[in-house]
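Support reply, case 0932

Customer input (verbatim):
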Amino acid sequence: MFTYNEKKLFATVLSFKIIVLILFVAFFGSSKLLWSGDALEYVDFAKNIVAGNGFSRSVNGVFVPAHDRVPLYPGIIGLITIISTKYFIVITALFQAILAALTALLVYRIGLFFMQRRWAVFAAILSVVEPVSVFMHMAILAETLLVFCIVCGLYFFLRYQAERKWVFLALSALAFMLAAYTKPVAMYVTLLPILFLAVDGRTAWKPLLIFCGIILLVAAPWLVRNYALFHMATMSTYGSKALCGYQVSAVFSVANRFVETTPGIAMAEVWKFARYRELQELCNRVSPTWMLFVLAREYPSAFIKTNFLATLGYLTTDGYAASASSGASGSPHNNYLTPAVFAGPAWRDHIKEAVAELSLFQIFIIILGRAFWSAIILLALVGSINLLRSRATRVYGLLILLVIVYFSSLSILGAAFAAGARYRFEVSPLLFLLAVSGIFCIVKKRWFFRKNTSP
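Our regenerated output:
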């Protein structure tokens, strides 16, 4: 099932993750792994599930059923708390270390579809040693499980494309649906394999029927639950919540030129406007797609500017700025050392304010991080073009690229300026795959040129 090289890769990555986790807990304590409000919410869900209160939030002693989240990750935490309520944080982080090692193994296997073994190993290692990935693999957040499910679904679908075995198709559908049960952003990623199956002239209707049948079968319990409780046949409403909280406020702020405190999220100012309150009310009533259309129609230039800067931030924000200083998330270096700063008229003053907060070494680390991710994006573009040009690798390159575009687009359109390194982590293994493919392409062509022109 696993080759010697695969076992060696898995053991190496897992050992690295465990060592890093031990050092982190020893120096900072396990409570630091509860990194954000999302982590505390996952733990709250887990405790309520174990206590028999269903998938609910605790609000002033009352258990309120939730429809904006999905239950897989809190359910896993709940199972771990049954094992140990005292050490559940560390055990969860160890579980995620195993997932990270398995993800690296799957990245390696996907790389073998279009790269030599040593390059596939390089892509796998790169996906687990990048600083943001190192922390995210430990933090009590759903992203590590989500990334594993995405890469797993992608790998099995590519195996199906290569070998035409229905077991791989079934495993792919299951993995993608587990991703949808992990985070709402993955709800519609299954449309991509469905599209591939629908336009594939080599297959009949049976593979498409099998894939769609498994999706419906796995999704049915949660859809029925949400319809029974909230009269909505959807996996989650989190997309609307993020859109109303971030995209609407960002576009409205840019349109009215008062991005002065936190780029794009000047909440105290926007609520003073009657039109903003109307937009929020509309956002809570209509679909996210229609709300985006309303924003683009009413504020076209602000909508384009907001999402262009948000895209730049998503692709190049290193994530190291948040750890370069001990300041809180509202400090200038977190707010103004991103492309979002150019959304406001006083961007020069804001950059000076942010730079003044940091030492030269911290500024160097941040610049180095931006340069690194800019290079990764450019190399991924080269790798994508190279894969798409060859008929033998076109399917692999196209599906990987579409998965990246899907998750990136939803993150940017939903979170706007808040979409940074944490959101990009969802597709970072695939970006590293394409980037290493780009390096492989450049090195191979350069070697070929020298070989054929040498005397």
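We compared this against your earlier run and they match. Two observations from our side: Residues 322-330, 447-455 have pLDDT under 50 and may be disordered. Residues 360-389 form the longest helix (30 residues). Please reopen the case if you see a mismatch on your end.
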